[in-house]
Each structure stands twice: as C-alpha cells, then as structure tokens.
Write a structure and sequence with these properties.
- This protein has one domain.
- The N and C termini lie far apart (62 Å).
- With 205 residues, the chain is an all-alpha fold.
- It has helices at 2-30, 35-45, 53-75, 83-104, 111-136, 144-175, 179-201.
- It is built from seven helices and no strands.
Length: 205
C-alpha cells in the first residue's frame, strides 16, 4: 500500500514538473516577450507558406533539433557563451533569414540549404533558451524531464505560430490578387526592420 502511494505521488510529481516546463517552453515562444523568436519563424515560414506544409514542419523540426542540442549542452554547463553575444546574434539570424528569402523568393529548390541554415540557427537560439531555463533549474543532475518538457512546449508553440502564419497567408492570397508578390516582400521588409532595431538595441559593444 505504501509502495502504491509512493509511486502515485511520484507520478503526480513528474506530471506536474513536466507541465511546468512545458508551459515555460510554450510561453517562451508565444508570449509578448518572445518577439525575436516569432520574427524568426515569420522570416522562415512566410515566403514558403504557399508550399508544402510537410516541408515547413520539417523546417520547424530542424530548428527544434538544433536548439535541443545547445539547450542541453548549455543547461548542463558543458557550453558557456556570453549572454549578450547570444542576444545580439539572434536578431542577426533573423535578418539573414529574411534577406536570404528576399533574394531566393522562397524558392523550394533551395530547401536543403534552408533546412541546413535553420538547423544552424536553431543551435544559436538554443543558447538563448538556455539562459532563461537555467534560472528555473535547481539542480544539474535532473535535467532530462525539464529539457523534454521545455522542448515539447517550444515545439507546440512553434506549431501554433506556423498554423497562424499559414492561415494569414491563405486569407491574404484569397483577398488580394497576385498577393504572392505583393505581400511576401513587404512582410520581409518589416521583419528586417524589426531585426535591425533589435540588433541596434542589443549591440554588445
């Protein structure tokens, strides 16, 4: 009886911890404070929103894999990089992504290159995630569940943003004739302006 109660309490504790870190990861993507990550997803997805949803989900997964690696390394203390440098490089990655799509025009033939670049930027963004996750972790010997819950929350938030971007893109294409050329580049301009403002605000020198 005591063993059953112990395992029941243990299961409840694990579930509560998982939900806590899932919520934290979710908020880190969808909250008002996550504008940099939202802009990155917009720069990444918007020019390709008329393409295959499968490819966009693959891009999201590439980003998740990238940030999961550096998130684990940084949270355990294996990898340490200046917070100010990371915060500066994140909007730089947004600008590069938007600029790349500006010249490529969302060309699906460039998908392998975009996939690789997304994974690389995922590594960078993972370091940014780790800076906030470390503040919640009390011990470094119990990271598996927090990292899993946090990554799950981030992935769920990214899928939500992906769905919202696709819905908005679809509505604009229905409302505006030839919206592919009239909407994609103006949005990229806004993303680049936003990233330039962030770069200016976060300059480490």
């Amino acid at each position: 009886m005591h063993e059953q109660n112990y395992f029941r309490d243990f299961e409840r504790s694990m579930t509560a911890e998982l939900i806590t870190y899932f919520t934290f990861g979710w908020d880190h993507i969808v909250s008002a404070d996550a504008l940099d990550h939202q802009l990155f997803l917009l720069a990444l997805i918007w020019p390709m929103a008329a393409g295959k949803v499968r490819n966009l989900l693959i891009l999201i997964t590439a980003f998740t894999i990238g940030h999961s690696i550096t998130l684990a390394l940084s949270s355990t203390g294996t990898l340490r990089i200046s917070t100010s440098a990371i915060e500066f490089l994140i909007p730089v990655s947004i600008f590069i992504t938007a600029l790349m799509h500006w010249f490529e025009g969302g060309d699906s033939g460039r998908f392998p290159a975009i996939f690789g670049l997304t994974g690389m930027f995922g590594l960078l963004h993972g370091l940014g995630f780790a800076n906030t996750l470390r503040q919640m972790l009390g011990k470094e010997d119990a990271l598996l569940l927090p990292l899993f819950g946090f990554n799950l929350g981030v992935e769920a938030g990214q899928i939500l943003i992906l769905a919202l971007i696709l819905m908005l893109h679809y509505l604009l294409r229905r409302l505006l004739p030839d919206s592919e050329s009239r909407v994609v580049k103006p949005v990229l301009i806004l993303v680049m302006l936003g990233s330039i403002w962030m770069i200016w605000q976060r300059m480490p020198f």
